[in-house]
Write a structure and sequence with these properties.
27% of the residues lie in helices and 28% in strands. It is of the alpha/beta class. It has a six-stranded mixed sheet, covered by helices on one side. A six-stranded mixed sheet has the order 8-9-11-12-14-13. Strand 11 (249-255), helix 10 (275-281) and strand 12 (287-290) form a beta-alpha-beta unit. Helix 4 crosses helix 11 (356-373), helix 5 runs antiparallel to helix 11 (356-373) and helix 9 packs across helix 10. Mean pLDDT is 92; it is low at 1-10 and 29-41.
Amino acid sequence: MSESTSLSPASRISRRAMLAAAVVAGSSASALLAASPAEAAPGLDRKNFRLTVLGTTDLHNNVFNWDYFKNAPYTDKAGNRIGIAQASTLIKAVREERGAAATLTLDAGDTIQGTPLAYYFAKITPASATVKHPMALAMNAVGYDAVALGNHEFNYGVDLLRTWESQLTFPLLGANVHVAGSGARAFTPYVLKRVKTGNGWVTVGLVGFVTPGCALWDRHNVEGKLDFNGIVEEAKVVIPEVKAAGADVVIVSCHSGATPGSSYGDALPFPENASSQLAEDVPGIDAILVGHAHQEIPERFVVNKSTGKQVLLTEPLRWGMRVSVIDLDLVKERGGWTVASAHSHLLDARTAPEDQQIVSAVSAAHQAAVTYVNKVIGTSTQPLSTATACWEDSAAVDAINFVQASRIKAELAGGAAASLPVLSIAAPFSREVDVKAGPLTIRDIAGLYIFDNTLLSIKLTGAQLKAYLEWSAAYYKTVTATSVASADLTNAPTSLAPAGTPDYNYDIVFGLDAPLEYSIDVAKPAGQRIQGLLYGGVPVPDAQEFALAINNYRQSGGGNFPGVTMAPVLSNSQQEIRQLMIDYVVEHGTLDAAVFARQDWKLVANGVPLSVTP
């Protein structure tokens, strides 16, 4: 990494004030400022050396503080700002404070998916030998030393991933990803960085891992091409390799949450979130930059079972909202460097202006995406809102289900499964969808369906359908009153989601040619909540067979819904659901709620309709 340009004394004061203001509550501002006098050549000492590692994660292709779905600057209730452009300003300021020679920069994955900007450069004008990916332009301008793979890197296929990788000026790390069937590593497992100190050089090993759930969630993109080993299992092999290669210090960039658990249950032999287990079970790691879980962890220590040593973990939330600052104080003893102490804190990007180098590099790509998503393709006959979709039947979710079910019915026509009643599942992905009646743009549709899932259909029985609905209904907390606030009702914790079931794991089932009607009695324990399950006004027999329109994330095990991963697949055209919705509107010219919107399900408490306040 090149040295930063020296700043004037006035600029240093301004920079230091910005960094002090950026320290997230719960972190130590004094730790940052005490370590930051650039005039004293930070990090350079004969026997002691401070190595600073800066980290981002789960950027999800957010470059600027922009909400493509609202066509406006990003806002949330907490006042956060997003984007690598803001994060870059903080990163470069810390480098200037600590000394660029004593600073490394990492990312923990999920980089090239998540916004219409990502979609545009994957599907509309794909990154290629002549088209630079915006996240290559941005990350190269930041000057990362390495980035780990995230599971969403595989959403657009291996070819696009390899194109992005080829455009990076730093290595893309994925030690536990192998060429299918061969055992050979498919990506760079680690990189060694030599950092100059006042007493020779310290060698830092940077290692990357990705959650093995990729094998499920993007099976259609990776099956037969890539295999994914468990993180701990792979680390027991690769960490000794890194040490043997000469690493004095080992930093892991791990796209796997710090809280143990898996959204896919026992569908894989390896856990989804293994960063804490990695720290406990594998000796030789000094610090872990955590990703995947979208959590804010300023500093956490996990004790390694073999050595008794504390391993530092930190996670900088998501979307460039935070930057992790890891400080490792090294001492040189008997010719080698060891970590004497380790600490970390987070910086908040809302305090930082955009890095103009990023603005210059990515503005043209951003404008191309903005123009694309604001193209009018049809009209909506009524407003489509998801503000209450998590507790009452919503036309917005019905629209998704209607398009999915209609497509599956067409795909099955003329075949052996043509006579099966068609159902569809969809979740209220976001509570912020607010499509107005009138002109419909591509960004309106993209806001309705924010993920890049593809559509397929499976065969389920009536008994399996009821089990599926019961699993979904565990999303609700147990409530006996007939009036409740939404916060006291939704996002119930479960063994798979101890912090609360996310909205995207609450599925609503819709019948195409006849209503699928049911009540969810939230006064009853989970597993006993589905009441009055009717199809076309008739109770659903256990043996009745249905064709179920389902997305690839859910069918491959996401959310661990029962019965779906082993159910017979009836069709799999691998069409993106969002594009199918766009195509439907273009073909029909309208999204007419009168065609699809129905009140098919409701919440009750001991049989009495439930009143829910937002």
